């Protein structure tokens, strides 16, 4: 049996967060969507996504193949019903295809949309991400669910007595360094990943997840619904935000109700607004509709794509969307939508060439001892072409 996570037509709604990854690689809660499915299925998965991502995320075909929607969160009922699918059967919820079973012989017909499929309507509610802002609105609940999944049957490591811990649902992985830190799990669990460093004076209020090898700088304030992905350095004030990984906000400044992809860096004093002064509901740029669309939310901060950076004292208005490979600097509020491969300030902006973006990425990744490979080069060129 081969399990394959696929991107559906809603993928474009999740830009700019999916230019460099399939939807299943998005982190919501402690885990990525792929990691959630693999824990439920007890096996590895592969991917059906855009052609330019296929080298990095290849598909693995078996005799029987279960294609699963990569934007849907797993639960016991859903996984159980998916396991009962016969070849050429699909499990659906309204107009969303949740899973399809396809034999090896029918793969070509399926991929070219010429295979006849019997549809079965799923009777229960599902949770999924359809838009970028769904990531932070779902994050607190997903931390709670992932906490149970990750810690079941395991024993937490302990912290020294210099730390203040309130509440029962606190899980500490091996190698955590923490002194003089306040952890409050009364309103939700707090998960601290392997080899995390919590510097003096940091305060965490669950539900919160700090993933492996990340660092909280001195005096960091981390509020409910926040996930700090692997290898991040975070300081200042963060509330209900998701950092996918390898991104830095090491200095003071507020980031709230936001999603920050990988390899992003915030200069000192960078601030996001997440509430309009007139308390109106917030609009965000839609890549699908190529215009600003209502989110229905009163709180919505910044959506930032991979490899984008801000200079010192940058200010992002509520509902701002920054694409991939951007270099934004200058005082004053930036525009609410900044396209991929753009550099500049509040008054003028210009295009970034691929070669310049590659040079910056090589320096950035080299600081973490990670090689910028030929595959990265091809992805930069592909995303630039799309842009």
Quick summary of this structure?
This protein is 17% helix and 29% strand. It is α/β, with parallel strands linked by helices and 387 residues long.
Commentary on this structure:
With 387 residues, the chain is of the alpha/beta class. The chain is 17% helix and 29% strand. The chain is built from 6 helices and 35 strands. The longest helix is centred in the middle third of the chain and has 18 residues. The protein is globular, with a radius of gyration of 21 Å. The relative contact order is 0.10. The model has no long low-confidence stretch (mean pLDDT 97).
Secondary structure blueprint with pairings:
Blueprint: E1 2-6, H1 33-41, E2 46-48, E3 64-69, H2 76-82, E4 89-93, E5 96-103, H3 107-111, E6 118-121, H4 134-151, E7 164-166, E8 170-172, E9 177-178, E10 182-184, E11 190-192, E12 197-198, E13 203-205, E14 208-210, E15 215-216, E16 221-222, E17 226-228, E18 233-234, E19 237-239, E20 242-245, E21 248-249, E22 254-256, E23 259-262, E24 265-266, E25 271-272, E26 282-286, E27 291-297, E28 302-304, E29 309-310, E30 315-316, E31 320-322, E32 327-328, E33 337-338, E34 342-344, E35 349-351, H5 354-366, H6 374-386
Parallel strand pairs: 1-2, 1-3, 4-6, 7-10, 8-11, 9-12, 10-13, 11-14, 12-15, 13-16, 14-17, 15-18, 16-19, 17-20, 18-21, 19-22, 20-23, 23-28, 24-29, 25-30, 28-31, 29-32, 31-33, 32-34
Antiparallel strand pairs: 3-5, 4-5, 26-27, 34-35
